[in-house]
Predict the 3D structure of the following.
Amino acid sequence: MTRRGALLFAAMCVIWRIPYLLIRVAVRELAPVTLVFLRTAIGALILTPVAAYRGELRPLLRHWRPVLAYTAVEVAIPWVLLARAETKLTSSLTGLLIAAVPLVGAVIVTLTGDRERLGGRRWLGLLVGIGGVAAIVGLNLGQINVVALVEIGFVAVGYAVGPIILSRSMSDLPAYGVVAASLLLTGLVYAPFAAANWPSKLPSAHVVESVLGLAIICTALAFLVFFALIAEVGPVRATVITYINPAVAAVLGVTLLSEHLTTGMLVGFALVLTGCVLATGRSPGAVTEP
């Protein structure tokens, strides 16, 4: 990996795990729907002019169905569920649970007829990963809200389905256009709900900073950096950030919000990480259909 690629990789490892910390701070004073509206609206204001200048919005019109589906499962639904869950869960625990996304993706692509079936190595990875999630949940059962846990489960499914839609139905569409459209559509959907739940007084400085950080750094800048990373190292290497991000989220939550790491979280994350590597890597035992 080049020095530029390494710097982009390191930046993404931090940028896409700061959100859990910032969401946890923001939902202390903002309703989840209001937070999602502000995040997507500000992000759309930044990226939509860029996409329009590059001529990347018009090609989306012919593919409006997959664009809407992608927006729903990758942004609109997961982001509000994530914000709701973080009113009841710590940011570090949320980040570790989201680490199961690659496992969910591996199951989905297999059940939906992916060309490459799961071999023995991948099945082992799934079992180990599921054991890791069970350890995170089971050993922290007294600290986990069941509703929030279900919400995180739906977030994980959405995050896993989104890239599948992107690769199967939208691989030829311009990336900036897809992201800008997703943010713009989500912002429009949540605008009336945000208005109905608008805070009666100006939020604290920490909350304002968190919202701006989510919109500018973790949304607009994050996608720009991620696309640059893909161009530099390729899409396969770029996805390795999935394995590192949860650890960054946990460290930030512990150091900045004084959250506690439990034995279940540490053991579970190690198992989830191992399971993800096994389940998402190319297995010698996997069978590829002609």
